Amino acid sequence: MDNKSCCGSDDRDSKAKEFIKINTQISIPGQFGSLASPLNSKSCCCGDDIKDSITKVSTKLTFKDTLGGWKARWGINRMNYKVNPGIYAVGDPDKSSPVLVTANYKMTFDALRKELSGLSAWIMVLDTKGINVWCAAGKGTFGTKELITRIGKIRLNDIVAHRTLILPQLGAPGISAHEVTKSTGFKIVYGPVRATDIKEFIRSGMKATGEMRTVKFSTYDRLVLTPMELVPTFKVSMIVFGILFLLNLIAAKPFGMVDFYGYAGAVITGCVLAPVLLPWIPGKAFAWKGWLLGFLWAIAVNIINGWPQLPSYSLVRALGYMLILPAVSSFYAMNFTGSSTCTSFSGVLKEMKMAIPIIIAMIALGAVMILLNSFIGL
């Protein structure tokens, strides 16, 4: 035969291509530039030659990587910010090199690979639909079935001689370790919470310290999540301001800058200040924490406008702000429960059932008071 593969079988070669995709770059929708290159231009499915067809990735992030991450933080192309599932190489790995498992959300992938400088390792990327490890574990995409399937698709048995996989600790809820071992023969070891500890973890014989196992939610961790809390508010805010504009056409006392910065401040208070100051705000419920900060903001708005000595608007309007602004902050602070590591699903449901009716009632009553002031001068 003229076009045999190196194994002597066209059929086997075609099957191997289904398992290992040869790319000169990682396919990332909306992302420019090459992040990776194949270890070798050869393509073969025989033993060690599989290594030659696996994509190699750098441990150094480029400006485009950083820009892509920043854009994702602000919701730009966020749901498409992912890498292809499969197997990747860092350094010059061999059959004894560790295998690290992660999600195909590119920001997660980048966070891992940039911490692997000086190491030779394999990175196995699961198809989590572009979702990070923690969220994907909860949704089931970073799960047992996908892990078992991916091990087979990339033919991991032929890539490494050992039978150990290092999974992120935050992915544990989605994985049944004994099922994986039973189906594939690979043992699951859970690595540290933070990618920054992965090199020390590997060098210590895959033994984690208590510090490595501790889930932290620092001020910085909370701050970097706030852009995605703000972005969804833009559409709602445009609707609110549009309604106020239309009401101004017939209102006796038009809405003005006080209403604009009062509402905007309440949104920022709930989306940014509440998450950043979370540990220091009294109370446990996020809705309560947001309400407290919103209440302080409402007082500040009234003081700025002359209350109580020289008020620029009536008591009815002032009370309307005292109802609406804390409620807005409360709602957006409560929304942050989905990003927090210190909440539970049942706890969030309980808080929502209690808080949402109160928030709706406060906004409705406050809106009535402000409308009465605007239209009939109360």
| Named CATH architecture of the largest domain | 3-Layer(aba) Sandwich
- What name is given to the CATH topology of the largest domain? Rossmann fold
Biggest sheet descriptor = 5 strands, mixed
Mean pLDDT: 86
Strand line-up across the major sheet: 1-2-3-5-4
* Share in helix: 40-55%
- How many alpha or pi helices? 16
What overall geometry do the principal axes of the alpha carbons give?
elongated
- Using only C-alpha atoms, the radius of gyration works out to 27 Å
Oligomer: single chain
Structural class: alpha/beta
Q: According to CATH, what is the class of the largest domain?
A: Alpha Beta
Number of strands: 7
Report the β-strand fraction as a percent range.
5-15%
* Low-pLDDT stretches: 1-34, 40-45
How many domain regions?
2
In whole angstroms, how far apart are the ends?
Answer: 94 Å
InterPro entries: Ac-CoA_synth_d_su_TIM-brl
Pfam families: CdhD
Domain CO dehydrogenase/acetyl-CoA synthase delta subunit TIM barrel: 81-200
Protein name: CO dehydrogenase/acetyl-CoA synthase delta subunit, TIM barrel
